[in-house]
Amino acid sequence: MKKSSHINILKGNIVHTETSKLFNISKNGYIVVQGNCIEGVYDKLPERYKNIEIEDYGDKLIIPGFVDLHTHAPQFAIKGIGYDKELIPWLETYTFPEEAKFIDKAYAEKIYKEFVNELYNQGTTRAVIFGTIHEESTEILMDLLEEKGISSYVGKVNMDRNCPDTLKEDSNESIKKTIKWVENCSGKYKFVKPIITPRFVPSCTGYLMEELGKIAEKYNLPVQSHLSENPSEIEWVKELHPDCKNYGDVYDKYNLFGQTKTIMAHCVHLTDEEIATIKKNEVVIAHCPTSNVNLSSGISPISKLLKKDVQIGLGSDISGGETLNMFAVMASTIKMSKLRSVCFKEEEKPLTIPEVFYLATKGGGRFFGKVGSFEEGYEFDALVIDDDNLWKVSKGSIEERVERLIYFGCEKNIINKYLSGKVLN
Amino acid sequence: MKKSSHINILKGNIVHTETSKLFNISKNGYIVVQGNCIEGVYDKLPERYKNIEIEDYGDKLIIPGFVDLHTHAPQFAIKGIGYDKELIPWLETYTFPEEAKFIDKAYAEKIYKEFVNELYNQGTTRAVIFGTIHEESTEILMDLLEEKGISSYVGKVNMDRNCPDTLKEDSNESIKKTIKWVENCSGKYKFVKPIITPRFVPSCTGYLMEELGKIAEKYNLPVQSHLSENPSEIEWVKELHPDCKNYGDVYDKYNLFGQTKTIMAHCVHLTDEEIATIKKNEVVIAHCPTSNVNLSSGISPISKLLKKDVQIGLGSDISGGETLNMFAVMASTIKMSKLRSVCFKEEEKPLTIPEVFYLATKGGGRFFGKVGSFEEGYEFDALVIDDDNLWKVSKGSIEERVERLIYFGCEKNIINKYLSGKVLN
């Protein structure tokens, strides 16, 4: 960052979480942004900035932009329906037939446009997204995200077994297409990057996973997939890979488990051994509470994983999850953690409001670098929040305003967005 | 119902649940209303109605009005905050101090106006509501509900032990005031009726409960209270009433358990003996899923209770629950039932969409008489639903539209409301 970079100053009620332990709040405070990055947050503006114009948001809240670590853009048209089944039959009945439609680029453009608009409206400034096996449709999605200026990783999905013929790739074709897609994307976008995306172990042969691991390494690309979401899925993986110690071990064997930056979605039913490898390999967990309840997958032990210092962010997981609204995903995260603590009577405490806020911002943001917090040197991603409609009687404290926002917040509360120092229009 | 009553005919996609087993759907059907009540639902309009003008709602959905069996109007200002505590400390920290403010009639009017407006906007046509100990403020609430035309039972709360001095009534004063309030209400309202409302066992002495039982009997008034919400509460009740077999038995002893029509809210941790008495005494359960998760109370075995043919409806339970939106309460009901089935691995299956729809309409409606369904002779309470905003791509089947509505529906989807045959304005 050059010293000469343009300086922006915003004033408002500034809320972020440097750690998951508590809120950092500056009431009627100032946030100084130099170029893309934060210079500092101040309760009283330092003398040296006194001649710079201030964008005064009054009593509004200024919070970091949301980071959505796991979602499936091609499932956008089937959100909020078909939750009568668990993972595997749900994929077969609803999801695979829908994803097969994305061979049609016109259909892809229609759905992806709706998806990207909604993602943008919901205040998600950073996202990690599954496409389908169709590389051309996936590029349409990437083009649309670039146009909106949403910082994102997008994956062309790979699958060469245990799926309908409409989605089953020839292994070598899949590899070739992936390389071509990766090279095609290189340097094409400012905000959007490719991510290697084996769907999940049951739908990828060892050969395919091995080659994808090589591609990730060669092009230094991150990896995303699903891990230990549903008990039947886990059993199936055991049958498919009896040589591996556990589900995570299959990815690890093929260098898809932290060898480059990796996100694993769900992680509901991890063994202690799996947790140890996740931590050692610095694999990032995308916690998807809405999906985990809708598909009856279970309740992930997030409080326990946070204590072990595993890196965790939140995922909306459309369409297992019904909504891209990250306020709602946070509320669901708290609720699920309460039920875990009630049902299993373990020593895990329910998650606190700062903890879920941290997960939705800095927790996931770490995958993107210095993102998701208002600390010095962090990229300035922010949402300006008008919550007047939630306080018809008399406004509470900043902490209470954030709590109520988590339960009721929606796109209409977001009145301005910043990504990496610039207003998102 | 006189044969000469005015006839109204509505056309649209008519959805209701005569039983919890499945939807009764009439696509582009007709609903014939004679006076207050339903004459019939028809796929093809009978010849005899051919000269009557039809209110044509086109592709919109027509569903029964919502019934909210349990909610606390004076807690409206603290919804969506303070969910870091379980029931008893939550009451002491947040709820009792807030309720104490309702000695001030101006404050009561302010909050109750917001509450009633919101209840109305959310499409709740029938509700059973707690006030506070303050009989004058409670009458303000009743006046406001009457003005809006919401059919409701409202309770002046009684409590004479284990609460702050600001809310503790002298037992005889409490009884005297209750009688005066009941007599004052008699014949005053068209839509609103009094209901006897001991807060819950811990805050009512045996003497007070006994006298309230007598009042309920003498004036033939229904009763509402709380039952077996939280494990600590249940332990406390055991200590307070060691002579009683269980929590429910305390109410039963004082004729507050089905001797007149009775609603018991929560019922999360019932014994088999309690369930048997509930069924025998025809006590109605108000299931409050949002509150049960927010206050970490637990997951009520609704699927099991439905199978035993216990009468159940839904309660928003403001402010243990965060919202009066009954779509959201239905979604929460499904989600909680999935987690119960996942966590406890019992034979209980998750609730289906028709089951929760039934609970939110006919299940609770039975408390009001023939209410909550579009069967012949039922009072015509209905909501006309425009769900176009939920289907940006292409509309699904009627069942899918109802499912998505449960996950995303809100006041803006409700474009018209009927109560007992008349439009609610």
Automatic annotation (TrEMBL), chains A, B:
Catalytically driven reaction(s): guanine + H2O + H(+) = xanthine + NH4(+)
Organism, per UniProt? Clostridium gelidum
The opening ranks of the lineage are: Bacteria, Bacillati, Bacillota, Clostridia, Eubacteriales
Q: What is this protein called?
A: Guanine deaminase
Domain Amidohydrolase-related, chain residue ranges per copy: 62-423
Known EC number(s)?
A: 3.5.4.3
- Top EC class, one word: hydrolase
Q: Which family does it belong to?
A: Belongs to the metallo-dependent hydrolases superfamily. ATZ/TRZ family.
The answer on whether this UniProt entry bears the keyword Hydrolase reads yes
